[in-house]
Amino acid sequence: MSDSQPENLPATSAASDAQTPQAEVIEQREGMFGVRGTGDTSGFGGLRRQVALPGGTPKPYGSWFDGAVDRLEGLAADGAIEKVVVDRGELTLHIKRENLVDVCQHLRDDEALRFEFCSGVSGVHYPEETGRELHAVYHFLSITHNRRIRLEVSAPDADPHIPSVVSVYPANDWHERETWDFFGIIFDGHPALTRIQMPDDWPGHPQRKDYPLGGIDVEYKGAVIPPPDTRRSYN
Amino acid sequence: MTATDPYATTRDTTEGKVFTVTGQDWDSVVSGLDEEPEERVVVNMGPQHPSTHGVLRLILELDGENVTEARCGIGYLHTGIEKNMEFRSWVQGVTFVTRMDYLSPFYNEAAYCLAVERLLGIEDDIPDKANVMRVLLMELNRISSHLVCIATGGMEIGALTVMTIGFREREKTLDLFELITGLRMNHAFIRPGGVAQDLPPGALDKIREYITWMNRHLKEYAELCNANPIFKARLQDVGYLDLAGCMALGISGPTVRSTGYALDLRKSQPYCGYETYDFDVPTWDSSDAYGRFRVRLQEMHESLKIVEQCADRLEKMDGQPVMVADKKIGWPSQLAVGADGMGNSLDHIKHIMGESMEALIHHFKLVTEGFRVPAGQAYVALESPRGEMGCHVVSDGGTKPYRVHFRDPSFANLQAMPIMCEGGQVADVIVAVASLDPVMGGVDR
Known about the structure:
- Chain A is an alpha+beta fold.
- Chain A contains 3 helices and 11 strands.
- Chain A has helices spanning 65-75, 100-109, 172-183; strands at 23-30, 48-54, 81-87, 90-95, 117-125, 134-142, 147-155, 161-163, 186-188, 218-220, 223-225.
- Chain A has a 5-stranded mixed beta sheet with strand order 3-4-7-6-5.
- Chain A is globular.
- Chain A starts with 22 loop residues before the first strand and ends in a 10-residue tail after the last strand.
- Chain B is α+β, with helices and mostly antiparallel strands.
- A 3-stranded antiparallel beta sheet of chain B has the order 3-4-5. Chain B has a 3-stranded antiparallel beta sheet with strand order 10-11-12.
- In chain B, α13 crosses α14 (357-368).
- At the A-B interface, β2, β5, β6 and α3 of A face α2, α9, β10, β11 and β12 of B.
């Protein structure tokens, strides 16, 4: 169990048309069943697993992706696109947060891109990805060209600011409020960034990974079932 | 002393005088205003009001009968489903998502399962029969959801017959759901890899009976409403929103189609084999509540056409699998009807408890630990009765979802409430909201 080879790595998905992206390790997990420190006599405590998300894809990306990315690179500021990920037939562009509004403007207005429909933003919290803990993930649909694209923007926990795209896509108004509510990402320039699902005076942002799920033991016919976040978990 | 309602009181705040009105006591508001004239009245409609479709709070600023400003207050039905899913296995997630938009549970399940299947890379391995059953259930669900929309929408403007016949037909649809999935709501029937169970014996006959019934009765809605002068007077030119407004606000579904634009993901980005079915996308060109009603009415007929095609296909698919062949993903146990109702198949219990230790281990591992999903993210959108139902799923390669986010069409569509209602009258607010057909379980999740 002492070798450094990662175990239990998920099988790599079948190779697609585009080149398989290099995995990007964001976290290293050890042990099993949520057991920490002493008391683990199962031998599973030595298990190690790397959490690796699909990393950047080199060109060519395949299908219409190349044309769209080239077009956007030409329009947006240099270095606005940090990384291009083609995975499972979906195109993800990682955008620098200061360039987000500009990129969105081009995505919507440029004839060759024309993503007129914004399906909202969803937050993801990666507490182990230092400096890029909070991700805001935007999904767009181009009805003109019948394409979908995903933008991903990250911000550190210490400075959770991302510019609001409500001025370009008014549809994102409530979605950004929801993401602020659940993840604490502050969307600068949003017309009224208030909580939307939780009560106004709620402390904390519930869908962050450091926010506990809560719950109480349930007793049924003498057996006690612990709340889900304290049950055995598989790393 | 006369009887006073302790809840109907007046108090002064820094914002002005606050009246708590519980019904039948609007006189107190009127007399209160006489003493101290106010230029505006702010009314909280809801969160508990039957015409707000669940617990939706509408904050209306009124000038007489006219709405000058309208805002939504939501979140009263937030149950933390997305957070809870991060602590359960991938298969258990279906049980949660089916409870979000409770009027279109199959769409929630299908969006989630299609996203998980894309992450697993098994999109092409789903058996044909499972896909046909998914389409069948989704289209039946579209009918039942539109029926509730039309029925409650009718009830709110006083068309009670539309409500009673609407729920009669919906009941027929729910009977089919009960027969096929075992439950009327919250089915958790569509699972990653296929569906939970094959069609029960006799289901096809019931579906045929249902198609005959619906063909006879769907006409009644058109006869009752389409040219009804009161119905038209209440709905026409109310809740106006044109195509540009829809695009800006991210509105999809019947609201877009009522502007004359045939935006339908079943046609433009087909999933589950929709490209092989013959159906039309109905549109209307009035951009108002009446147009949305007509679009929904016509969509039910189109859905019925698809249901009929599904029934024809299922007839030839007897005995085919409904779950992906990969034993590391497909749920090991099968269901069967026993003396005490639906439960685990006794044959399967016999096999794992008496015949094969390996089968028992496999069953145990898959049920307790679940399967692992390769790391990455996927976004799948499908056309629910309310518009684009999107599901963004992120996996870290573990046995539980790392993050699941639903782009619920009700949530996005409700943003159009102010633009539809401001400048109109209070009574039109109810019609406009009903024409958006928001389901608060989906809005708040």
